[in-house]
Amino acid sequence: LGETWMHAAALNGQLNVLKEFVNHPLAKEKKSGGATWMHTAAQRGHLNVLKEFANQPIAKEKTPAGATWMH
Fold first, then answer.
1. What is the largest distance, in Å, between two alpha-carbon atoms of the chain?
2. Using CB atoms within 10 A as the burial measure, which of 11, 24, 56, 60 is most buried?
């Protein structure tokens, strides 16, 4: 997969969109390299998104190389 709609929301720091759809089954989709939308939010420096979801299951997801959103 390329960029997903959750990645697009994370890319732009759209916290309201992420909060609304975080429990949607497709919200767990990863980019082709294995990055979650939390990785995308971290790369863009969207601290409000990271703080909101830091204790959610999505925050524990890793890439195939073992990187979390904190790496």
1. 30
2. 11
Residue reference for tokens 């089954």: 25
Q: Indicate the residue type of 58.
A: I
* Cα 41 from chain centroid (whole Å): 6
Judge contact between 37 and 70, C-beta under 8 A. Answer: no
Helices (H), 1-71: 5-11, 15-21, 37-44, 47-53
pTM, two decimals, is: 0.85
Dump pLDDT digits (tens) for 20-60.
999 998 888 888 788 899 999 999 999 999 999 999 988 89
Neighbours of 34 (CB within 10 A): 15
Q: Which of 7, 10, 6 is nearest to 41 (CA)?
A: 10
CA atoms of 61 and 36, how far apart (whole Å): 7
